[in-house]
Amino acid sequence: MKRSDLRIAKLSLIVGLLAVVISPWLWTLPTILGINFQASGQIGDTIGGTTAPIVGLVGAVLLFLALKAQITANEIVVTQLQEQRELDAYQKLSTYMTQQVQLLRDDMNDFSLTQTTTTGPSNARVKNTIQYKGVEAIIEALDTMKDVRAEHDEALIDIPQFAHIRMILDRMCILVEDITKRSLNPVDKEYLLATARFTYEARLKPVLALLEEHRVSKQEPCKSCGKVHTGIPEEIYSAYDRLNVLLP
């Protein structure tokens, strides 16, 4: 209940009590303004009839104030429930975004590449298998990609390891764009973007920048067919270009 309503309730109660206490003495005086109430019937009926409206009026005022306070309390409860729902929805969104960043980092850590080389004389060749994982595997895959000869650059994307790298870059672009446009607290948004930026700059950007001169668009076309047969596909570097704009 508001302080103003509480003051009105207290004032109404005090005035009503005073009126009820004073009325019996007032109406039993021999004469009030020339009127003799003792001659108007039973004194109890007179007192009851005059004090009942006062009691009823005070009760009505108090009831009104109580109902008003209840309505205000209900509005506060509704507001609190709405705020709680919004808070729960925000926490779910924030948790989801955090999980997506972590899943992307886990995906990079789980990336693997196996390379087999053969050494030794022709009559005693020995196969050597090297297993790369995480960032090291991504570096080796991109370094290998620049030297693989294909009919055209799109054909390289169909190779599973190369398709995986492209998927990682595309997912990072989508995630950063999603974080940017979401209605997140500025502090939380900056934290998520900073985490994504760190992941990109620590694991992908350096090697992509180092090998950028090997992207297909910078290679000389074949003199006989006019096509480019080597180089890292533009699908990889288009995502790289986008991320450099999204995460300056």
Brief account:
The chain is mainly α and 248 residues long.
Topology (elements, then pairings):
Layout: H1 3-27, H2 43-110, E1 112-119, E2 126-133, H3 135-145, H4 153-157, H5 160-181, H6 186-203, H7 205-210, H8 234-246
Antiparallel strand pairs: 1-2
Helix pairs in contact: 1-2, 2-5, 2-6, 5-6, 5-8
Description:
By secondary structure, the chain is mostly helical. The protein folds into 2 domains: 3-92; 111-246, no CATH class. Helix content is 68%, strand content 6%. It has 8 helices and 2 strands. Strands 1-2 form a two-stranded antiparallel ribbon. A hairpin with a 6-residue loop joins strand 1 (112-119) and strand 2. Helix 1 (3-27) runs antiparallel to helix 2 (43-110). The radius of gyration is 42 Å and the shape is rod-shaped. It starts with a helix and ends with a helix. The model has no long low-confidence stretch (mean pLDDT 76).
Could you tell me the strand content as a percent range? 5-15%
Count of individual domains? 2
The count of β-strands is 2
Structural Rg: 42 Å
Give helix % range: 55-70%
Features:
2 domains; two-stranded antiparallel sheet; 68% helix; mainly alpha; 248 residues; single chain; 8 helices
